[in-house]
Amino acid sequence: MAGHSQFANIMHRKGAQDKRRAKLFAKLVREMMVAARQSPDPAANPRLRAAIIAARAVSMPKDNIERAIRRGSGKEDGVAYEELRYEGLAPGGVAVIVEAMTDNRNRTNTEVRTIFGKNGGKIGDLNSVGFLFSRVGTIVYAAGAASADAVFEAALEAGAQDVASDEARHEITCAPEDFATVRDGLGAKFGDPQSARLNWKPNSTVPVADEAVARELFKFIEALEDNDDVQDVYANYEIPDALMQKIAA
């Protein structure tokens, strides 16, 4: 299993699931508010349209989506958020990029640095590990949306760089500058995707085969993702499936 955005551990208790759902809603609301500053019209704002798709994918109520857009566009009072990025190393020498949105830069700086320090990480300067990743557009459809051949042909026609299909989903990647064109081209044929966003994709991965290191790594990533200001965490780890299954058991 390779490291990616939105690390998810298996949660067994309903209360924990509800808490994570509430945090996810809050993060999506922030994304829509920031995106809506450019334009409240999803048709003219690719970033906002992608955020709305993500919100609908997790069944966010329509009223919540509309309220976030109104607040972001200044039609209702709301908090002003700014975007921050942090880079550094996680346990096992894994490179990490952390994206945050905050209404208090000092608070977020302190909290993120504390998480790195207390969980075996080492925070670095901006672009200290960024060169190990590439910025890409990622569009995901459920496997049942179309056949692998149909998705591949449509993605190629739309200008995508790569398509990976398995039993669960189709994942299409493209250059950032082609993101809107590829997403809209696929949407015209297959409807709204499960998700459509710009991500950081590792150019290479760091193997983590030691169980103790893997558990420490996951604890570190989970601590970051539990922070209210952190939107996404990207990491370049590679863990054998057998070890993943053992940790999740």
Structure characterization notes:
The protein has a domain at 14-72: Orthogonal Bundle (Arc Repressor Mutant, subunit A), CATH 1.10.10.200. It is 43% helix and 24% strand. The protein is α+β, with helices and mostly antiparallel strands and 249 residues long.
* Helix percentage: 40-55%
Mean pLDDT: 89
Structural class of the helix and strand makeup? Answer: alpha+beta
Principal-axis shape equals globular
Main sheet: strand order: 3-1-2-9
What kind of sheet is the major sheet?
A: 4 strands, antiparallel
Number of strands: 10
Q: Tally the helices.
A: 8
Low-confidence stretches: 5-15
Q: What is the CATH class name of one domain?
A: Mainly Alpha
Specify the CATH homologous superfamily of one domain.
Integrase, N-terminal zinc-binding domain
CATH architecture type of one domain = Orthogonal Bundle
Task: Report the span from N to C terminus.
Answer: 15 Å
Rg is 18 Å
CATH topology of one domain: Arc Repressor Mutant, subunit A
Beta-strand content bin? 15-25%
Encode the helix/strand succession as letters. HHHEEHEEHEEHEEHEEH
Ordered list of secondary-structure elements with their pairings:
Layout: H1 14-36, H2 46-57, H3 62-72, E1 82-90, E2 94-102, H4 105-118, E3 122-124, E4 133-142, H5 148-158, E5 162-165, E6 169-174, H6 179-190, E7 195-202, E8 206-207, H7 211-226, E9 230-235, E10 237-238, H8 241-248
Parallel strand pairs: 8-10
Antiparallel strand pairs: 1-2, 1-3, 2-9, 4-6, 4-7, 5-6
Helix pairs in contact: 1-2, 1-3, 5-6
